[in-house]
Amino acid sequence: MDLRQLSYFLEVAQHASFSKASQSIHLSQPTLSKMVRNLENELGIVLFDRSTRRVVLTEAGKLVQTHAQAVINARQQLLAAVEDLTEMRRGQFALGLPPVIGASFFPKVIADFHQLHPDIAIHIVEEGGKRIEQLLLEGKINLGVIVLPVDEGLFDIIPIVQRHLNLVLPHAHPLSRKRKVRLADLRDEPFILFRQEFNLHDRVKAACIREGFEPRVVYESAQWDFIYELICANQGISLLPETICAKLDTGKVRVIRLIEPSIHWDLAIIRKKGGYISQAAQGWIEFAQHVFANRQ
Q1: Which residues of 132-154 are buried (b: 16+ CB within 10 A; e: fewer)?
Q2: Is there a single domain that holds both residue 140 and residue 228?
Q3: Number of folded domains that form the chain
Q4: Nearest alpha carbon to residue 173 among 233, 217, 215
Q5: Position 21 confidence tier, pLDDT thresholds 50, 70, 90
Q6: What DSSP character marks residue 149?
Q7: What is the rounded CA–CA span in Å between residue 271 and residue 81?
Q8: Domain range for residue 55?
Q9: Count of Cβ atoms closer than 10 Å to residue 59 Cβ
Protein backbone atom coordinates (compact mmCIF):
# COMPACT_ATOMS: atom_id res chain seq x y z
CA MET A 1 0.00 0.00 0.00
CA ASP A 2 1.26 3.44 -0.84
CA LEU A 3 -0.10 6.96 -0.58
CA ARG A 4 -0.88 7.12 -4.29
CA GLN A 5 -3.26 4.18 -3.98
CA LEU A 6 -5.08 5.86 -1.11
CA SER A 7 -5.20 9.18 -2.94
CA TYR A 8 -6.60 7.60 -6.11
CA PHE A 9 -9.16 5.63 -4.10
CA LEU A 10 -10.35 8.86 -2.43
CA GLU A 11 -10.70 10.57 -5.82
CA VAL A 12 -12.95 7.79 -7.10
CA ALA A 13 -14.99 7.89 -3.88
CA GLN A 14 -15.39 11.67 -4.15
CA HIS A 15 -16.52 11.62 -7.80
CA ALA A 16 -18.42 8.31 -7.53
CA SER A 17 -16.98 7.61 -10.97
CA PHE A 18 -13.75 6.17 -12.35
CA SER A 19 -14.00 8.25 -15.52
CA LYS A 20 -14.52 11.58 -13.70
CA ALA A 21 -11.76 10.77 -11.20
CA SER A 22 -9.34 9.90 -14.02
CA GLN A 23 -10.06 13.25 -15.70
CA SER A 24 -9.57 15.10 -12.40
CA ILE A 25 -6.12 13.63 -11.69
CA HIS A 26 -5.08 13.34 -15.38
CA LEU A 27 -4.56 9.59 -15.22
CA SER A 28 -5.91 7.06 -17.69
CA GLN A 29 -9.02 5.21 -16.52
CA PRO A 30 -7.49 1.71 -16.96
CA THR A 31 -4.47 2.72 -14.85
CA LEU A 32 -6.71 4.21 -12.18
CA SER A 33 -8.90 1.09 -12.10
CA LYS A 34 -5.82 -1.10 -11.78
CA MET A 35 -4.47 0.96 -8.85
CA VAL A 36 -7.78 0.71 -6.97
CA ARG A 37 -8.04 -3.03 -7.74
CA ASN A 38 -4.49 -3.52 -6.37
CA LEU A 39 -5.52 -1.75 -3.16
CA GLU A 40 -8.58 -3.99 -2.85
CA ASN A 41 -6.44 -7.10 -3.37
CA GLU A 42 -3.92 -5.93 -0.79
CA LEU A 43 -6.64 -5.25 1.80
CA GLY A 44 -8.62 -8.35 0.86
CA ILE A 45 -11.90 -6.46 0.57
CA VAL A 46 -14.15 -4.87 -2.07
CA LEU A 47 -14.17 -1.09 -1.82
CA PHE A 48 -16.73 -0.19 -4.52
CA ASP A 49 -19.98 -1.65 -5.74
CA ARG A 50 -19.50 -1.45 -9.52
CA SER A 51 -22.84 -3.03 -10.45
CA THR A 52 -24.64 0.30 -10.89
CA ARG A 53 -24.05 3.28 -13.18
CA ARG A 54 -22.59 5.22 -10.26
CA VAL A 55 -19.70 3.74 -8.32
CA VAL A 56 -20.86 3.29 -4.74
CA LEU A 57 -18.70 2.69 -1.67
CA THR A 58 -19.27 -0.58 0.17
CA GLU A 59 -19.41 -0.62 3.97
CA ALA A 60 -15.73 -1.64 3.97
CA GLY A 61 -15.06 1.14 1.47
CA LYS A 62 -16.60 3.74 3.80
CA LEU A 63 -14.37 2.54 6.63
CA VAL A 64 -11.26 2.73 4.44
CA GLN A 65 -12.32 6.18 3.19
CA THR A 66 -12.31 7.55 6.75
CA HIS A 67 -8.87 6.19 7.56
CA ALA A 68 -7.41 6.96 4.13
CA GLN A 69 -8.50 10.58 4.45
CA ALA A 70 -6.85 10.77 7.88
CA VAL A 71 -3.61 9.40 6.40
CA ILE A 72 -3.65 11.92 3.54
CA ASN A 73 -4.44 14.77 5.97
CA ALA A 74 -1.56 13.69 8.20
CA ARG A 75 0.78 13.71 5.20
CA GLN A 76 -0.32 17.23 4.29
CA GLN A 77 0.15 18.37 7.88
CA LEU A 78 3.62 16.83 7.94
CA LEU A 79 4.60 18.60 4.72
CA ALA A 80 3.21 21.88 6.05
CA ALA A 81 5.13 21.49 9.32
CA VAL A 82 8.35 20.74 7.45
CA GLU A 83 7.76 23.73 5.19
CA ASP A 84 7.21 25.92 8.26
CA LEU A 85 10.60 24.82 9.56
CA THR A 86 12.49 25.15 6.28
CA GLU A 87 10.89 28.53 5.60
CA MET A 88 11.63 29.56 9.21
CA ARG A 89 8.01 30.19 10.09
CA ARG A 90 8.47 28.21 13.30
CA GLY A 91 11.11 26.24 15.20
CA GLN A 92 13.20 26.35 18.34
CA PHE A 93 16.78 26.06 19.55
CA ALA A 94 18.80 26.45 22.74
CA LEU A 95 21.44 29.20 22.89
CA GLY A 96 24.21 29.36 25.49
CA LEU A 97 25.16 32.93 26.48
CA PRO A 98 27.63 34.06 29.14
CA PRO A 99 25.88 36.75 31.24
CA VAL A 100 28.41 39.49 30.37
CA ILE A 101 28.22 38.80 26.65
CA GLY A 102 24.46 38.37 26.66
CA ALA A 103 23.79 41.63 28.46
CA SER A 104 26.30 43.58 26.37
CA PHE A 105 25.53 42.42 22.85
CA PHE A 106 22.42 40.33 22.42
CA PRO A 107 19.17 41.85 23.80
CA LYS A 108 18.50 43.83 20.59
CA VAL A 109 19.74 41.02 18.33
CA ILE A 110 17.33 38.58 19.95
CA ALA A 111 14.47 41.10 19.97
CA ASP A 112 14.93 41.98 16.27
CA PHE A 113 15.13 38.30 15.31
CA HIS A 114 11.94 37.58 17.27
CA GLN A 115 10.17 40.41 15.49
CA LEU A 116 11.04 38.82 12.13
CA HIS A 117 10.33 35.26 13.28
CA PRO A 118 7.79 35.44 16.13
CA ASP A 119 7.11 31.68 16.15
CA ILE A 120 10.74 30.64 16.58
CA ALA A 121 11.49 30.06 20.27
CA ILE A 122 15.01 30.70 21.61
CA HIS A 123 15.76 28.99 24.92
CA ILE A 124 18.58 31.02 26.50
CA VAL A 125 20.97 29.23 28.86
CA GLU A 126 23.17 31.62 30.88
CA GLU A 127 26.50 30.00 31.73
CA GLY A 128 30.21 30.73 31.56
CA GLY A 129 32.07 29.94 28.35
CA LYS A 130 33.59 26.68 29.59
CA ARG A 131 30.22 25.35 30.70
CA ILE A 132 28.71 26.36 27.36
CA GLU A 133 31.36 24.30 25.55
CA GLN A 134 30.51 21.30 27.74
CA LEU A 135 26.76 21.68 27.14
CA LEU A 136 27.34 21.81 23.39
CA LEU A 137 29.42 18.62 23.47
CA GLU A 138 26.70 16.92 25.55
CA GLY A 139 24.04 17.99 23.04
CA LYS A 140 22.10 19.95 25.66
CA ILE A 141 22.22 23.22 23.71
CA ASN A 142 22.45 23.89 19.98
CA LEU A 143 24.56 27.07 19.80
CA GLY A 144 26.83 29.01 22.09
CA VAL A 145 28.52 32.41 22.13
CA ILE A 146 31.98 32.44 23.70
CA VAL A 147 35.25 34.33 23.93
CA LEU A 148 37.85 32.78 21.64
CA PRO A 149 39.89 30.64 21.50
CA VAL A 150 38.18 27.26 21.60
CA ASP A 151 39.20 23.83 20.31
CA GLU A 152 38.67 23.96 16.54
CA GLY A 153 38.70 20.18 16.46
CA LEU A 154 35.53 20.08 18.55
CA PHE A 155 33.61 23.13 17.38
CA ASP A 156 32.64 24.99 14.23
CA ILE A 157 33.48 28.65 14.83
CA ILE A 158 31.70 31.69 13.38
CA PRO A 159 33.52 34.90 14.46
CA ILE A 160 31.23 37.89 15.07
CA VAL A 161 32.97 40.53 17.24
CA GLN A 162 36.55 41.72 17.65
CA ARG A 163 37.24 43.88 20.70
CA HIS A 164 39.95 44.55 23.31
CA LEU A 165 40.04 44.51 27.09
CA ASN A 166 40.49 47.79 28.95
CA LEU A 167 42.30 48.36 32.23
CA VAL A 168 40.06 49.59 35.06
CA LEU A 169 41.74 51.23 38.07
CA PRO A 170 40.69 53.13 41.19
CA HIS A 171 41.01 56.87 40.60
CA ALA A 172 43.74 57.16 43.24
CA HIS A 173 45.91 54.47 41.66
CA PRO A 174 49.44 55.63 40.66
CA LEU A 175 48.88 54.40 37.06
CA SER A 176 45.54 56.18 36.68
CA ARG A 177 47.05 59.28 35.01
CA LYS A 178 48.79 57.30 32.29
CA ARG A 179 47.39 57.16 28.77
CA LYS A 180 49.02 53.80 28.04
CA VAL A 181 50.01 51.02 30.43
CA ARG A 182 52.28 48.06 29.83
CA LEU A 183 50.81 44.80 31.03
CA ALA A 184 54.12 44.01 32.72
CA ASP A 185 53.62 47.08 34.93
CA LEU A 186 50.72 45.23 36.59
CA ARG A 187 52.95 42.44 37.89
CA ASP A 188 52.43 43.29 41.57
CA GLU A 189 48.82 44.46 41.37
CA PRO A 190 45.85 42.70 43.03
CA PHE A 191 43.57 41.46 40.22
CA ILE A 192 39.78 41.14 40.36
CA LEU A 193 38.64 38.74 37.63
CA PHE A 194 35.60 36.90 36.42
CA ARG A 195 35.34 33.41 37.85
CA GLN A 196 37.29 30.52 36.35
CA GLU A 197 34.32 29.14 34.41
CA PHE A 198 34.41 32.30 32.28
CA ASN A 199 36.80 32.30 29.34
CA LEU A 200 37.75 35.90 30.18
CA HIS A 201 39.49 34.58 33.30
CA ASP A 202 41.84 32.43 31.22
CA ARG A 203 42.25 35.19 28.62
CA VAL A 204 43.66 37.62 31.21
CA LYS A 205 45.75 35.00 32.97
CA ALA A 206 47.32 33.75 29.73
CA ALA A 207 48.18 37.30 28.62
CA CYS A 208 49.94 38.01 31.93
CA ILE A 209 51.88 34.74 31.81
CA ARG A 210 53.12 35.62 28.32
CA GLU A 211 54.50 38.82 29.88
CA GLY A 212 56.40 36.81 32.48
CA PHE A 213 54.14 36.84 35.55
CA GLU A 214 51.04 35.16 36.92
CA PRO A 215 48.40 37.62 38.12
CA ARG A 216 47.68 37.72 41.84
CA VAL A 217 43.92 37.21 41.91
CA VAL A 218 42.34 38.52 45.11
CA TYR A 219 38.66 38.30 44.15
CA GLU A 220 36.58 36.51 41.54
CA SER A 221 32.96 37.16 40.56
CA ALA A 222 30.38 36.29 37.94
CA GLN A 223 28.98 39.85 38.05
CA TRP A 224 30.71 42.75 36.31
CA ASP A 225 28.97 45.33 38.54
CA PHE A 226 30.36 43.67 41.68
CA ILE A 227 33.85 43.74 40.15
CA TYR A 228 33.31 47.45 39.45
CA GLU A 229 32.22 48.13 43.05
CA LEU A 230 35.31 46.32 44.39
CA ILE A 231 37.53 48.51 42.20
CA CYS A 232 35.70 51.60 43.47
CA ALA A 233 36.46 50.37 47.00
CA ASN A 234 40.16 50.28 46.12
CA GLN A 235 40.34 46.48 46.38
CA GLY A 236 42.21 45.89 43.13
CA ILE A 237 42.28 46.36 39.37
CA SER A 238 40.66 44.50 36.49
CA LEU A 239 40.77 44.04 32.74
CA LEU A 240 37.26 44.30 31.36
CA PRO A 241 35.58 44.33 27.94
CA GLU A 242 35.00 47.67 26.24
CA THR A 243 31.23 47.18 26.35
CA ILE A 244 31.29 46.90 30.14
CA CYS A 245 33.68 49.82 30.52
CA ALA A 246 31.23 52.01 28.61
CA LYS A 247 28.74 51.48 31.48
CA LEU A 248 31.14 52.45 34.27
CA ASP A 249 31.05 55.78 36.09
CA THR A 250 34.38 57.34 35.10
CA GLY A 251 33.96 59.71 38.04
CA LYS A 252 34.66 56.72 40.29
CA VAL A 253 37.15 54.66 38.27
CA ARG A 254 39.74 55.27 35.57
CA VAL A 255 39.48 53.34 32.30
CA ILE A 256 42.68 53.00 30.26
CA ARG A 257 42.08 51.71 26.75
CA LEU A 258 45.67 51.40 25.56
CA ILE A 259 47.27 48.25 26.98
CA GLU A 260 50.57 46.97 25.65
CA PRO A 261 50.37 44.31 24.41
CA SER A 262 46.64 44.53 23.81
CA ILE A 263 44.45 41.65 24.93
CA HIS A 264 41.99 40.64 22.27
CA TRP A 265 38.44 39.84 23.28
CA ASP A 266 37.01 38.15 20.22
CA LEU A 267 33.53 36.66 20.27
CA ALA A 268 32.26 33.80 18.16
CA ILE A 269 29.18 31.69 17.75
CA ILE A 270 30.13 28.04 18.13
CA ARG A 271 28.37 24.74 17.50
CA LYS A 272 29.42 21.14 17.93
CA LYS A 273 31.42 20.01 14.91
CA GLY A 274 29.39 17.58 12.83
CA GLY A 275 26.28 18.12 14.95
CA TYR A 276 22.79 18.66 13.56
CA ILE A 277 21.81 22.27 13.10
CA SER A 278 18.15 23.18 12.63
CA GLN A 279 16.94 25.66 10.05
CA ALA A 280 15.92 28.02 12.86
CA ALA A 281 19.37 27.90 14.47
CA GLN A 282 21.11 28.36 11.11
CA GLY A 283 18.85 31.30 10.36
CA TRP A 284 19.76 32.90 13.69
CA ILE A 285 23.49 32.46 12.96
CA GLU A 286 23.11 34.21 9.60
CA PHE A 287 21.00 36.97 11.15
CA ALA A 288 23.56 37.58 13.94
CA GLN A 289 26.45 37.59 11.43
CA HIS A 290 24.66 40.25 9.39
CA VAL A 291 23.91 42.40 12.44
CA PHE A 292 27.46 42.34 13.78
CA ALA A 293 29.03 42.83 10.35
CA ASN A 294 27.10 46.10 10.07
CA ARG A 295 28.25 47.19 13.55
CA GLN A 296 31.97 46.83 12.88
Answers
A1: bbbbbeeeebbbbbbbbebeeee
A2: no
A3: 3
A4: 233
A5: confident
A6: P
A7: 25
A8: 3-86
A9: 10
